[in-house]
Design goal:
The chain is mainly α. Helices cover about 80% and strands about 0% of the residues.
Length: about 425
């Protein structure tokens, strides 16, 4: 059967831009809760453990959905699956603004996590099929950049809508953010051809042919050294990222004495820096490839640089409110999101046939650990005397900042070495 016609580069990058927008919507629906966490905590009379249980429900549901939608993505046309899951999670985000009980809030959060999980298997299946290996990290950085943009835009929406302390003033933010998904679904459906997500480039057809010539069962894939390294990697980088996503607002307000508006501003600038790091990681990897470094070594190098930047967060417990703390948070922001495009591209090296299941299974693993961590960390803060709560938040932040270095070590030690290029002896 002949290969499907290739789309123009402009159209390929337009589709990558739609992936960016999907990530933006994904994170706007997700971040609205953490950005209004102080108000919701007061209105629903929650302890820190109660707030942590909302994030645990979201995360465990996300973990379930990651594997579920990974399997579905390998069996169905992502052109249709993607808008369906996006509209479902947008509906749950909208409904969050209507609930009046904790059980309703918990149910919305759980279903939001379940449906949001479909984003990543669909998105990674798309970049794997649209882009050759040398450009996938850049494509994944564009995709991942949307999470930072979503996290940047959400505090601005909260600031513009939540202007007083009236109970329920946070609700319209959820409803407005939830309604945006309809626009994206229309753009996606009119932009994609059915054959767009078939293997099109020579690089992709070669990968698919290799899969067909020596097919691996999914069990063989998950038992490989590459998969084991990725398990350690995905746990480490997600513990770090989600600690800041979920708890930074509370750390800044309760741990360092910033006002709600000041903390929203700092969250905005933190996420600006995460976007800078994410896009820079993609361009830097592509630049190293052009300089002659292999795609794998390029990603490993950039992952190492980002891990060192995040490790600077180990200083957080030592820093009071002020410029030094802000500077360290910004450095951590640059590194923390730059890790993810490299990780996603590593996952795309395992299997073409099982890409959805690979990303879904790793997504499940990635979310189980942070979800349980949030619940346990909330209990830890609740049990800490008031005078020590600021330090408790700070130590939670600093502890996770060392995790990416552990992931780097796993990549170096466990990931199979690239074969050395053959040396041709002179005649």
């Amino acid at each position: 059967m002949s290969a499907p016609p290739e789309r123009s580069q402009a159209m390929v990058w337009w589709i990558c831009f739609l992936l960016l927008l999907a990530s933006t919507i994904n994170y706007m629906d997700r971040q609205t809760l953490s950005n209004t966490s102080e108000r919701i905590t007061r209105e629903f009379k929650l302890t820190e453990a109660g707030y942590g249980s909302l994030e645990m429900a979201f995360g465990l549901a996300f973990a379930t959905g990651a594997t579920l939608f990974g399997i579905i993505a390998d069996r169905t046309n992502v052109k249709w699956l993607y808008p369906i899951v996006l509209l479902l999670w947008s509906t749950m985000g909208f409904a969050t603004g209507l609930v009046t009980t904790f059980s309703g809030l918990l149910a919305c959060r759980l279903l939001l996590g379940l449906f949001e999980a479909g984003h990543w298997p669909c998105a990674l299946k798309t970049t794997q099929r649209l882009l050759p290996s040398s450009k996938r990290t850049l494509g994944n950085s564009v995709l991942q950049s949307g999470t930072a943009i979503g996290a940047m835009v959400t505090p601005l929406i909260i600031r513009s809508l939540v202007v007083d302390d009236r109970p329920g003033s946070w609700r319209p933010a959820f409803q407005i953010v939830g309604a945006i998904g309809v626009v994206w679904a229309i753009l996606w459906l009119i932009s994609l051809w059915n054959q767009d997500l078939q293997a099109t480039s020579a690089d992709q057809r070669s990968d698919a042919a290799s899969d067909a010539a020596s097919p691996q069962s999914f069990l063989n894939v998950v038992c490989s050294r590459k998969f084991i390294a990725l398990v350690i990697m995905v746990i480490a980088i997600n513990l770090c990222w989600h600690q800041f996503r979920v708890w930074m607002q509370k750390f800044l307000i309760r741990g360092r004495g910033y006002s709600e508006l000041e903390s929203l501003d700092l969250n905005f600038w933190f996420n600006v820096m995460t976007d800078v790091g994410c896009i820079s990681a993609g361009f830097a990897t592509a630049w190293l490839c052009r300089r002659g470094l292999t795609a794998h070594k390029s990603r490993l190098t950039i992952f190492g640089v980002c891990s060192l930047l995040v490790a600077s967060g180990g200083l957080i417990p030592l820093l009071p409110k002020g410029p030094a703390l802000v500077a360290v948070l910004m450095i951590v922001g640059v590194g923390s999101l730059g890790l993810f495009p490299c990780y996603y591209t590593f996952t795309q090296e395992l299997s073409v046939a099982h890409q959805g299941k690979v990303s879904g299974t790793l997504g499940t693993i990635a979310w189980i650990f942070p979800s349980l961590w949030h619940w346990r960390f909330g209990h830890f803060v609740d049990q800490t005397p008031d005078v020590g709560k600021g330090l408790a938040y700070a130590y939670g932040m600093s502890t996770v900042c060392w995790m990416p270095l552990l992931a780097l070590l796993a990549l170096i030690v466990i990931w199979p070495r690239e074969p050395s290029p053959a040396v041709v002896s002179p005649d």
